[in-house]
Write a structure and sequence with these properties.
About 45% of the residues lie in helices and about 15% in strands. The chain contains 16 helices and 15 strands. β3, α1 and β4 form a beta-alpha-beta unit. The structure holds one RNA strand.
RNA sequence: GGCCACGUGGCGGAAUGGUUACGCAGAGGAUUGCAAAUCCUUCCAUCCCAGUUCGAUUCUGGGCGUGGCCUCCA
């Protein structure tokens, strides 16, 4: 198996050959959720995309050679706001959302990351990093706030391809009276008495956003590592600030070598936003749509492209999987050929890979056992058809109003009517079943049925 | 205003300096009491204008259009 991999790197704005720091293992950090509200379909995309990348890296480098870190940010102003608004304690809120998030991950069939650190468990590390930045003259303290001094870091703006003048010209940067420069961002800020806070050399307070990722990536992956992923919207300022903090605190030239960013999900061609009310949460979706369907839908376009979430997409994905599940069998997986894996190795080209799955399905449905093994192994490579056929059907069954006895009765009645030539009655019985989400198929010797 | 991405058939969506995937939908056929499913066959596309080239959808320049970022956001 060749390990050739190419990624589009946001840092260079072009596709590059992937070379890990250590040639037989890989470290990857992906920005996880801030647990202030239920994760939605837009949050699901990076989960599935980077899970697919994680699976690919494990295939190429070996299961134990890939370290995947995905954080949970459980201290942030948004959490404090949400807690106040919903009159829930911080603890209750963050625990509820974290639990829901974990259910979502399972629903989407994402593997557990190697580490899933929480920000609140690394406050000490954050304080150390802030101290380091102060010591290195990359930060300054003012009235219990500590700010990062952007002008002290020459490479600032490299990732997002911005320069300081442009940013200031935008002039929508929040200007705090305690900042020396409008571009500076907060590393530590004081907390009100009733808000979460930790003792620090600068008084009781809490970390600024961005800091947790710098600290936790260092702890689990080192000062420099291979891949950093997240949504496109995190490029600026979040990832830009992470780079600045980490490089300055650690005195390193680089932070992550490859930056991968996924595109947005729109909803019926519209931007998702709370005010429009078109946010689909994953847990809401899970009531009606199988997680496999969501996963396939999310992988149906290239991760960097925008993806529109709509009924048609769900329907198409569902139909495809219905078809594919006809080939389902419990099998021993086999190693995939270079030819099959190639699309994934070219910047995780999942649409091309899925096209290949269609062709493998074709071979499988008219071929022998070995073609089937190949098809199923290829599906499972990207986390599809891992759920068995039974539970695939059970999901649909659970949504149906009618049970098997009812269905079998109707089929029996219908077949009797057919025998007598009473096709009008037979058709109305079929229609009745169809209205209840059951499709009938007359095969040579018997009538089979399935849930829609 | 600055920066970036994108514009492929009816829809979704890849790739490519020469023969343009794949899925859905459509058409025709086999099969069927009729359907469904399946199988076979089949139609349909590279935003516009220049340039480079023997040849561009692909490269370059310009135009038009769409979206994103510059502020919390996956």
């Amino acid at each position: 198996m060749n390990k050739n991999l190419n990624f589009f790197n946001t840092l260079s704005n072009k596709k590059e050959k992937f070379t890990p720091i250590n040639n037989n293992k890989v470290g990857m950090y992906v920005c996880g959720p801030t647990v202030y509200d239920f994760p939605h379909i837009g949050n699901a995309r990076p989960l599935v995309v980077f899970d697919t990348l994680f699976r690919l890296l494990r295939t190429l480098y070996g299961k134990n050679k890939v370290t995947y870190v995905r954080n949970i940010t459980d201290i942030d102003d948004k959490i404090i706001e949400s807690s106040k608004k919903n009159k829930k304690s911080i603890k209750e809120l963050t625990e509820t959302i974290t639990k829901s998030f974990h259910q979502d991950c399972k629903y989407l069939n994402c593997l557990n990351p190697t580490f899933e650190p929480k920000a609140t468990e690394h406050i000490k590390g954050m304080i150390n990093m802030v101290s380091n930045l102060l010591k290195n003259n990359h930060a300054y303290e003012n009235k219990k706030h500590v700010y990062f001094s952007v002008s002290s870091f020459k490479k600032y703006g490299k990732l997002s391809n911005k320069n300081s003048e442009q940013l200031v010209a935008g002039s929508r940067v929040e200007v705090s009276k305690y900042k020396k420069d409008p571009l500076d961002f907060v590393l530590w800020k004081p907390s009100d008495e009733n808000d979460p806070g930790w003792d620090s050399p600068w008084g009781r307070g809490r970390p600024g956003w961005h800091l947790e990722c710098s600290v936790m990536s260092e702890k689990f992956l080192g000062k420099q590592f291979d891949i950093h992923g997240g949504g496109l919207d995190l490029v600026f300022p979040h990832h830009e600030n992470e780079i600045a903090q980490s490089c300055c605190a650690n005195k390193t030239e680089n932070f992550a070598n490859y930056w991968l960013h996924n595109g947005f999900v729109t909803f019926d061609k519209e931007k998702m936003s709370k005010s429009v009310g078109n946010i689909v949460t994953i847990n809401k979706l899970s009531e009606n749509v199988n997680g496999q369907v969501v996963r396939l839908a999310l992988l149906s376009s290239h991760y960097k492209q925008p993806l529109d979430w709509n009924e048609q997409l769900i329907k198409d994905s569902q139909n495809t999987l219905d078809k594919w599940y006809e080939q389902f069998e419990k099998i021993n997986l086999e190693e995939l050929s270079d030819d099959v894996l190639k699309p994934l190795q070219e910047d995780l080209n999942t649409p091309e890979y899925i096209a290949k799955l269609h062709s493998l399905f074709e071979d499988s449905s008219k071929g022998n056992k070995s073609a089937k093994v190949k098809f199923l192994s290829a599906c499972q490579q990207i986390g599809l058809l891992e759920e068995d056929k039974q539970s695939w059907n059970n999901f649909k069954k659970a949504k149906s109003k009618v049970d098997e006895n009812f269905i079998n009765e109707k089929i029996k009645d219908r077949n009797e009517a057919r025998k007598k030539g009473n096709y009008k009655l037979a058709d109305s019985l079929r229609k009745e079943l169809d209205d209840n989400g059951v499709i009938i198929e007359d095969k040579q010797e018997k009538t089979t049925w399935k849930y829609k």
